[in-house]
Design goal:
The chain is an alpha+beta fold. Helices cover 29% and strands 28% of the residues. A three-stranded antiparallel beta sheet has the order 1-3-2. The longest helix is centred in the middle third of the chain and has 9 residues. It starts with a helix and ends with a helix.
């Protein structure tokens, strides 16, 4: 597997996933990724203090997830 070999050769320490929708965020959680950052879309405003993103439920947050590369690749 080329991606796996490349990650191990370059001594990557983790895999990062950025989720702008609830569905990939749920998948990341089920795969064991840990959420390290989240931003509610209603808190992201422009210079006029207007909400920039008017997303529909359940897509209310942008989230960043990480998992240690060895856990992700199952290479202990």
């Amino acid at each position: 597997m080329l991606g796996r070999e490349l990650a191990l050769q370059n001594e990557c320490s983790m895999v990062r996933v950025e989720c702008s929708s609830n569905f990939p965020a749920s998948a990341a959680e089920k795969l064991g990724f840990k959420c390290i950052y989240s931003l509610n879309y209603k808190e992201y405003k422009n210079d006029k203090d207007e909400v920039t993103f008017n997303s529909l439920a359940p897509h209310k947050q942008f989230k960043v997830y990480v998992i240690p590369i060895r856990k992700y690749l199952h290479t202990d």
